[in-house]
Write a structure and sequence with these properties.
Chain C: It comes from Flexilinea flocculi. The complex is a heterotrimer of chains A (584), B (502) and C (99). Chain A is mainly alpha-helical and 584 residues long. Chain A is built from 24 helices and 2 strands. Chain C has 99 residues and is an all-alpha fold. Classes of the chains: A mainly alpha (584), B mainly alpha (502), C mainly alpha (99).
Chain lengths: 584, 502, 99
């Protein structure tokens, strides 16, 4: 039964992708409806799958030499992420019904989303290291296609290619990691590998290389330091895609990878610390960038990067549950924020926050949803972001040095500042220009309401969440905790109030700062750095430049002169003789 | 009957090449726009060749051997021959179907089909030969048939230029091959690959010299850097069908010939392995850098063939250097098959687009990258299939190229050697680099605003062309999702290689 | 005696490759290839002498002659075609394919 469900949840969206690809341009309405029904059905399937969480290992036939078995595991880590991908995917598709109305090439749009959702489910459910890489690359392919959906726009193409290259480059780390797993254990089974690593059967050098390779892969996919430059540029995608891929699912793949393999690398010196610091550096850098950005979607993108940093930090501090619980909260509230932003952008026709202002009156429902999301992002009590962020802070307080905890508190202030700034600039303040506002569509509102409700109540699932994790992940050694106990720990802990105080401090700081360009040196320097992505954009461009120069140089070798070609042959012979002479 | 299977396998395409040519002479249509009907005879010839092929394959897969001896010459059909023949027959079928309309307006089409059948014969023949000299003969036959095919547009200066460059380099390569054979023959007095290793083990210098000669001579055909300079010219100037054959199977057959010849020098196999590893790394880098800033579509694919030969050479290098890396051999043969399908598809799809845009472009100027802008709006199938081909070449799943690259790497990883891991990472970086030229192509094709050239193209797509593209496309997608479909074939090819070298 | 033959072989190969490296004339290209093949063929015959197996060596040499003649014919045909189209036999002047 579980096996059939897993097969369906991967193959059904893919089947849908093929069907939708074959639709005609004229059948626009049918395309929307088909996409919605395919995603809705797989969302239902994923919810059914929730009931099958356990330690089951499902393994079908062998794929071939060096490729392991077609194997899946039905544990909480995978199934909860499947649920997130499918449910939020479904809401994003419902939202697209209005958002993408009248666009060309809907078939490609929906096919890629469906292919993506299926691949994401596969990625988190499989227990074969090669298949992780397989699905990993499919998600990279789909996200690249979706980011550059508007292919006529050079910026979109650039954003898509950048996402593809950076995630693929990081993917080499995963390639290396999974190949080392294969070469060291002779099998690609992840459970087997984790058991072997915990038993100390794997050479420590190989384990370390694999561990850091996986960090690189995860950092690239989750847009962490030093690979965080692609996510903001990925905002050229249609907004539902941003919500689905760049907030709720794909970027989570990196976090998932680390959570999945974390137990294996506990013995590797510096692994946890590296993950922790990658997280913290990312949080700080991206929060500052979020404070200075003026493009609404970019602010959300930077906030995604910084929230993913929290997830990394939690893993580094040793708490997979905290990381995953915040992942759940973040997926919901960030999807909400993105879709609200989409509704706003769709209505006013610009992404520049400086041109917005006082939109609250004009689009109340969207504004309220956005504010709920922003409160959750800032960590204001009773919203889901508050509880899960407290869980992370608690984990960092107990599992990492005090200095790290202080930096995290500072990050909480920054988060509060950019959240309030964003809400204020868009929905309140002075009206900057005469923007004509459309009423958001019916389907847009439906998906916003569902997500807003999720943001308010999703933390109530903590009991079941933690129980599922402790029950189904033997290697992670997670203790189950009931919701009541969780709440009482957080409420009784004085540090919680310190964190809330930091949030309020952040909001107060922003309200009382002097508007207009600042004269002090520090903010100015910070702003310059932040606008220039702290120099990482320049590094990216330099690398591209170098490669292109190299390419031009190598093309000069192809001189087209026959004598030169013959010279090449003779050189080849001499080189081969030399190498053979030395080797033999 | 069983002993004659090989003869049937060789005679069927050989006889059909003659029949196709002769009948084609008589059937040549007056209306030059119509295809010569002899092409259907050619298709029938390929179909007929499948019969002895399937019969021999069944024997091989059941563990029986298929061999025949005529005089001093022994021909043996083993796992490698099976894989190579399968590849060449499928690709050949696709190319011939594609050429029905593509070559229809050309002068002396029948010659094209006749030469194509000779090419197919020679490739099958080469894969079955068991002595050094026999390999050389088939190899020369293959080379001769491709010279004329590359320079098929004999009224275009560029096409002749490519042909002459190819001929000169390839003929120079033959010299090295003959020298290598002479050295071995002069030392041992034998030319049969099985007899030589025992006799030659003591003469180390000869082994190195002969090995270097073979690697250079056959390496020219395999486009090993720095002997690759002919390839971008030849592949981009040949008719698209021929480009597909050249890239898809001819350069790989050069590698098979090289491996067979090197198996005579078996005792020195490990030191040849290092050469393959180095060449693999160089090929990937040079091929990708050459393609990166290329503005001509077919030339870009030609450079990408150089880099793909790099992956294949890398796999062979892993296999020869490290005892544990037998899985690399599976990967290599898998990649050879996949590359034939992917690159065949890429060249044929590009050719189909050339065909439809020919009138719009007005002359024989090559298909440029910018001509592909928005092609999906007018030719959705061509755009889809070309996208599938280039993404598969870039190694993205769920397409075939990913799986075979993985298998090559997995084999290398089994060696647990840090240098092997380093080369794998290098290969991975190269795959990312290759997306630097494949991915923008896809973006271009899916623009909403077609280019002027595309708008002026013929709207009607040829059914046979589409059929040939879909045939190859099915393999590219199917093998990416179900790699085990072909594991019998790659498995027996790899065990044949194991027999040759271990 | 055998030294002389080895020197002959190397001499022929040297002349052939030197010619290939410097010539720009299409016809000389074909001639150079012919010289090279003669050198290689001499090597095959010499090898036959060394192992006292002239029958195999001779049959190989004959086959090489056939193969080589076909290559020469195709090469010359192309050279003539080039001359007819472009009115030149200089390979550099038709070298347009580069980069």
């Amino acid at each position: 039964m579980t096996a059939i469900l897993i097969a369906l949840i991967i193959l059904f969206p893919w089947f849908g992708a093929v069907i939708i690809w074959l639709m005609k341009d004229e059948q626009e309405k049918l395309t929307h409806i088909l996409a919605m029904s395919f995603t809705a059905f797989s969302a239902v399937l994923s919810l059914v799958l929730l009931t099958r969480i356990g330690q089951d290992q499902i393994s079908a036939y062998s794929l071939g030499i060096g490729m392991g078995d077609l194997a899946f595991s039905a544990d909480a880590l995978g199934i909860i992420l499947t649920c997130i991908a499918n449910c939020i995917g479904c809401l994003a598709v419902v939202f697209s019904k209005d958002y993408m109305n009248g666009e060309k090439d809907l078939q490609r749009y929906y096919s890629m989303i469906l292919l993506f959702i299926g691949a994401m489910s596969g990625l988190v459910l499989t227990s074969n290291a090669m298949l992780i890489f397989f699905f990993w690359e499919i998600t990279a392919l789909c996200s690249y296609q979706l980011i550059s959906f508007y292919n006529d726009d050079p910026k979109a193409v650039r954003g898509g290619l950048k996402a593809l290259f950076i995630t693929q480059f990081g993917g080499i780390g995963l390639l290396l990691g999974s190949l080392l797993i294969f070469s060291q254990t002779g099998s690609l089974d992840i459970q087997h590998f984790i058991a072997a690593a915990q038993a100390g059967e794997i050479s420590s050098a190989a384990l370390a290389v694999a561990g850091f390779g996986l960090i690189a892969a995860a950092a690239a996919k989750s847009s962490q330091f030093p690979f965080f430059t692609w996510l903001p540029d990925a905002m050229e995608a249609p907004t539902p895609v941003s919500a689905l891929i760049h907030a709720a699912t794909m970027v989570n793949a990196g976090v998932y990878l680390l959570c999945r393999f974390a137990p294996a690398f506990q013995g590797v010196a510096g692994w946890n610390t590296t993950v922790l610091w990658v997280g913290i550096i990312t949080i700080l850098l991206s929060s500052v960038m979020a404070i200075f950005a003026n493009d609404l979607k970019r602010v959300l993108a930077y906030s995604t990067v910084s929230q993913l940093g929290f997830l990394f930090a939690a893993i580094g501090a040793g708490s997979v549950t905290a990381s995953q619980f915040h992942l759940l909260s973040h997926a919901i509230f960030k999807a909400l924020l993105f879709l609200c932003a989409g509704a706003v952008i769709h209505s006013v026709g610009t992404r520049d926050m400086r041109l917005m202002g006082n939109l609250y009156k004009k689009m109340k429902p969207v504004a309220i949803c956005f504010i709920i999301g922003a409160c959750s992002l800032a960590g204001i009590p009773i919203f889901n972001g508050f509880w899960s962020k407290e869980l992370i802070l608690e984990a960092i307080h107990s599992g990492a040095p005090l200095s790290v905890y202080i930096l995290m508190l500072f990050a909480v202030i920054l988060t509060a500042i950019y959240s309030i700034r964003c809400v204020w600039m868009v929905f309140f303040g002075k009206e900057k220009s005469e923007l004509h506002v459309h009423e958001p569509g019916r389907f847009m509102k439906y998906s916003l309401y569902v997500l807003a409700a999720g943001t308010v109540v999703s933390w109530l699932t903590f009991g079941g969440f933690s129980n599922a994790f402790s029950k189904s992940l033997p290697h992670h050694e997670i203790e189950a905790e009931s919701l009541g106990k969780f709440l009482s720990t957080i409420i009784k802990d004085p540090l919680t109030y310190l964190a809330i105080f930091m949030v309020i401090l952040g909001i107060v700081l922003w309200i009382f700062h002097k508007p207009g360009p600042s004269k002090a040196v520090l903010p100015k320097v910070l702003e310059t750095c932040a606008v220039n992505s702290f120099g990482f954009e320049i590094i990216n461009e330099k690398i591209i430049d170098k490669i292109q120069n190299l390419s031009e140089f190598s093309r000069e070798l192809q001189s087209g002169i026959l004598n030169w070609n013959i010279f090449g042959v003779l050189t080849g012979l001499v080189l081969i003789l030399i190498v053979l002479g030395i080797g033999g | 009957m069983k002993n004659n299977l090989i003869l049937w396998l060789l005679f069927t395409p050989m006889i059909s090449s003659v029949v196709v040519y002769v009948v084609g002479r008589f059937l040549a249509p007056n209306d030059t726009e119509k295809p010569n009907k002899t092409v259907w005879l050619c298709v029938a010839g390929i179909a007929a060749t499948f019969v002895p092929f399937i019969l021999s394959s069944i024997n091989i897969l059941n563990g029986k051997s298929v061999a025949t001896t005529i005089g001093d010459i022994t021909l043996a059909f083993d796992g490698i021959s099976m894989l190579v023949s399968l590849t060449v027959l499928i690709l050949g079928l696709a190319v011939i179907l594609f050429s029905v309309d593509y070559m229809a307006a050309e002068h002396s089409e029948e010659k094209f089909y006749g030469l194509l059948m000779i090419l197919i014969t020679s490739i099958i023949g080469l894969s079955t030969s068991t002595d050094l000299f026999n390999i050389y003969i088939w190899f020369e036959l293959m080379a001769v048939s491709t010279y004329s095919l590359v320079a098929f547009y004999r009224n275009r200066a560029t096409s002749l230029e490519a042909g002459i460059k190819y001929l000169t380099q390839s003929a120079a390569g033959s010299i090295f091959i003959i020298l290598g054979i002479a050295m071995i023959f002069g030392t041992t007095g034998k030319i049969s690959m099985q007899d030589i290793p025992a006799l030659i083990a003591s003469s180390k210098r000869i082994m190195i010299a002969a090995g270097a000669c073979f690697i250079t001579g056959y390496g020219i055909k395999c486009a090993f850097v720095p002997m690759h300079f002919w390839l971008p010219d030849a592949h981009s100037q040949a008719p698209s069908g021929v480009s597909a054959m050249l890239s898809g199977i001819v350069i790989e057959t050069g590698l098979i010939a090289l491996l067979r010849s090197l198996s005579a020098l078996n005792p020195a196999a490990a030191s040849f392995g290092i050469i393959f590893l180095l060449i693999g790394a160089l090929n990937m880098l040079i091929g990708n850098l050459g393609a990166l800033r290329q503005s001509e579509v077919k030339r870009m694919f030609a450079f990408s063939s150089i880099s793909h030969m790099g992956y294949i050479a890398l796999g062979i290098g892993f296999f020869l250097t490290f005892q544990e890396s037998t899985a690399s051999a599976d990967g290599v043969f898998f990649h050879i098959f996949n590359h034939a399908m992917m690159k065949g598809l890429a060249f044929l799809a590009a050719g189909a687009i050339v065909f439809n845009l020919k009138q719009a472009k007005g002359d024989h100027s090559p298909l440029m990258v910018k001509d592909l802008d928005g092609i999906s709006q007018k030719y959705p199938w061509y755009a889809l299939l070309l996208s599938i081909a280039v993404l598969a070449l870039g190694g993205l799943p769920p397409l075939a190229g990913f799986i075979s690259k993985w298998q090559i790497f997995a084999g290398g990883a089994l060696s647990k050697n840090p240098w092997a891991m380093f080369l794998i990472v290098f290969a991975g970086i190269n795959s990312v680099l290759s997306l630097g030229y494949y991915a923008p192509l896809v973006n271009r094709m899916y623009r909403h605003q077609p280019s002027q050239t595309v708008l002026a193209g013929i709207s009607k797509c040829s059914a046979t062309m589409l059929a040939s593209l879909i045939l190859l496309g099915i393999f590219v997608v199917l093998l990416g999702l179900f790699p085990m479909l072909i594991s019998n074939y790659t498995g027996s090819a790899s065990s044949a290689l194991l027999n040759m070298f271990r | 005696m055998s030294y002389i033959i080895v020197i002959c072989i190397l001499g022929l190969l040297g002349i052939g490759f030197y010619c290939l490296l410097i010539t720009r004339n299409l016809l000389k290209l074909v001639v150079a290839l012919q010289v090279l093949v003669k050198g290689a063929m001499l090597a095959v015959l010499f090898a036959g002498c060394l192992v006292d197996n002239m029958e195999v060596a001779q049959s190989m040499a004959l086959t090489i002659i056939v193969a080589d003649t076909i290559v020469a014919v195709i090469g010359l045909a192309m050279a003539i075609q080039v001359r007819q189209i472009t009115n030149t036999s200089n390979i550099r002047s038709i070298s347009t394919l580069r980069k």
